Amino acid sequence: MASAEVERVRVSSTKPPLPDPSTKPVVGKVRQVDGPIRNLKLSGHVGFDSLPDQLVNKSVQNGFIFNILCIGETGLGKSTLMDSLFNTSFESSASPHSLPSVKLKAHTYELQESNVRLKLTIVDTVGYGDQINKEDSFKAIVDYIDAQFESYLQEELKIKRSLATFHDTRIHVCLYFICPTGHGLKSIDLMCMKKLDTKVNIIPIIAKADTISKTELQKFKEKIVHELSNNGVQIYQFPVDDENVTEVNAQMNSHVPFAVVGSTDFVRVGNKMMRSRQYPWGTVQVENESHCDFVKLREMLIRTNMEDMREKTHMRHYELYRKKRLEQMGFTDVDSDNKPVSFQQSFEQKRSHHLQELQQKEDEMRQMFVNRVKEKELELKDEEKDLHSKFDKLKKDHSEEKRKLDELRKTMEEDIIEFNRRKTQIAQQQALSSSHHTLTLGKSKKK
Ligand SMILES: Nc1nc2c(ncn2[C@@H]2O[C@H](COP(=O)(O)OP(=O)(O)O)[C@@H](O)[C@H]2O)c(=O)[nH]1
Ligand SMILES: [Mg+2]
Q1: Which molecular function terms from Gene Ontology are attached (predicted)?
Q2: In contact, 199 and 321? CB cutoff 8 Å
């Protein structure tokens, strides 16, 4: 096969000046084979500057998917915060504290803002922290996250895949609700976040921040950050590589964990209804930045970094899962000499290895079968021999018995003959003696 020629030409376009008839277009003339990429000027408007618009239109048409996992003890305000974040009511029902284990419940909603559709899935950890033994609380969560990765991987590995219409349920962000104790993280918090930090983007938040005083809150935040870094827990960092958001994201990274307040109640402030919590001593406004970090969280989670979280989920967390799973299946990018191998080579190698193993197993089983048959044959032969000798003995016993019986019969027959002979003899003697007696009687009568 002839090796393919690689032609790389880079043509750059600034906003097109009016075409100058004296300069001939260079596009297509300058060709570099396997050389460096060159910048070229376009001498007229081509139109690929509409690519971003095309992308936007397509994305808007398809709609977006975003999946949030809320982890936190029952009653920490997870459902209320979700209602507050999306400014709606998801109509969730309160869960009891009596569940024997942690269960994950997902609900999917279709939301629309202007012409942008969002398929939002909120996954709740029902019963989290309610068991006496909390050691295994994270297991159900890890399993759930992996199960979503697995179903995406299975779709991806199908021959006929429909990823465009596939409902991607991979978790894009995990909001970890920290109890506002002021005493730092609980061991369940650290353990759970540590188990999840390679699987999902974690944003820790301090729940019900209105129950903790301002000075305590600052110390609490510092303590949490310290404990997270001491335990090597990697939480999600808002990206600073996009210059449009570098500054705001860098600043927001220093505010994590956000201390939030949620509410389903509204209070009139001026001529506007504001989400607030009312107390005898005053009102906490959810969207007031001097009252809590709710606005910061909404800004970071929904308005600035939603796409980054979707991307990181796919490029980092899913990629890691996929790598592990493919390696488990026996695929690799390099051979034993560290030389690159293609997926096909790797697959064929795995297949031939598998076939070899199968053949070996089949041979082993066949050999085992032959051995078993041989053993059984020997056993049967032994049993047959036994039976034969038993039969011979029985035959011998029988003929011996028969012989004895014959002898007995013979003796008995002789005895009978003797008996009969003697019987006749006695009968004769009796007859003779009775006739003699009659004779004697007769003689005496005559006298
Ligand atoms: N003080 C305070 N109470 C809250 C806050 N958010 C929710 N709550 C209350 O806490 C209770 C449980 O809230 P819910 O959202 O059902 O908790 P979930 O079990 O974590 O979903 C409800 O009575 C809420 O009104 C908050 O930010 N501050
Ligand atoms: Mg709830």
Answers
A1: GTP binding
A2: yes
In angstroms, the first-to-last Cα distance of the chain is: 162
| Closest alpha carbon to 166 in 155, 182, 157, 178 | 155
Residue 128's nearest CA partner among 186, 170, 194 is: 186
Q: Is the CB of 175 under 6 A from ligand 1?
A: no
* 268 Cα to the center of ligand 1, angstroms: 21
pLDDT in tens, 9-50: 454 544 444 444 444 444 444 455 577 899 999 999 999 999
Q: What's the domain range around 259?
A: 59-329
CATH of the domain at 304: 3.40.50.300
CA proximity to 189, closest of 181, 43, 289: 181
- Distance from Cα 81 to the centre of ligand 2, integer Å: 9
Ligand nearest to the CA of 105: 2
Q: Is residue 46 part of a domain?
A: no
Nearest CA-CA partner of 33 in 60, 55, 4: 4
Q: How far is the CA of 70 from the centre of ligand 2 (A)?
A: 9
Residue whose CA lies nearest to ligand 1 atom number 10: 77
Q: Quick one: pLDDT at residue 327?
A: 87
The reply to whether 201 and 344 lie within a common domain is no
Cβ of 206 below 6 Å from ligand 1: no
Q: Of 363, 381, 396, which residue sits at a domain end? A: 396
CB of 76 within 6 A of ligand 1: the answer is yes
Question: pTM of the prediction?
Answer: 0.73
83 lines ligand 1 (CB under 6 A): no
135-149 burial, b for 16+ CB within 10 Å, e for fewer?
Answer: eebbebbeebbeebb
pLDDT the model gives residue 347: 80
36 C-alpha to ligand 2 centroid (Å): 58
Q: What angle do CA 196, 297, 110 make, to 5 degrees?
A: 80
Cβ–ligand 1 distance for 346 under 6 Å, the answer: no
pLDDT of 402 strictly over 90: yes
| Distance of alpha carbon 207 from alpha carbon 416, whole angstroms | 121
